[in-house]
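Retro notes (design track)

What went well: tokenization of the new backbones is finally stable.
What didn't: we kept losing track of which sequence belonged to which structure.
Fix going forward: every design gets posted as structure first, then sequence, in one message. First example under the new rule, 149 residues:
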């Protein structure tokens, strides 16, 4: 259940609140997303794709609240379902196994330089930009890489 996903319409990675804001819906005060119009929910299912595998069928999921404290315990996120309720993710996708995803153990913290992956990815991205493989608008470029001839 990804916190961010790729919007085909906007050509970039967005979280639920950003996507709703771009469509004129202010999610402030509606943490459970109960007031989101059905037309906007239907649009999400066709516009939003899993960033890892390209799965379609996005569902907007509001933040969860703790019963005892009434504080947010989960963040708003996207869930993906096929028309028949099946899991549309590729079996090799990070989000294929929802039980594993909910623990968060699979995440790599790229915000910290302590990860060995962070400098390696930074180096690859810089070399790719320098070599002209993709531009600074890298999300769409990376999704389209390798070029289709």
């Amino acid at each position: 259940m990804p916190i961010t996903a790729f919007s085909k319409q906007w050509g970039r990675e967005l979280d639920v609140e950003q996507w709703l804001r771009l469509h004129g819906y202010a999610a402030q005060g509606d943490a459970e997303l109960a007031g989101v119009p059905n037309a906007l929910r239907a649009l999400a299912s066709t516009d939003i794709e899993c960033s890892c595998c390209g799965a379609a069928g996005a569902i907007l999921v509001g933040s969860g609240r703790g019963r005892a404290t009434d504080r947010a315990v989960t963040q708003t996120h996207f869930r993906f379902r096929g028309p028949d309720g099946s899991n549309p993710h590729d079996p090799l996708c990070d989000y294929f196994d929802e039980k594993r995803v909910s623990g968060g153990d699979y995440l790599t913290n790229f915000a910290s330089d302590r990860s060995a992956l962070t400098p390696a990815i930074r180096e690859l991205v810089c070399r790719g930009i320098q070599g002209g493989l993709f531009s600074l608008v890298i999300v769409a470029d990376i999704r389209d890489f390798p070029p289709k001839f």
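Added context from the reviewer: The chain has two domains: 4-103, 108-149.
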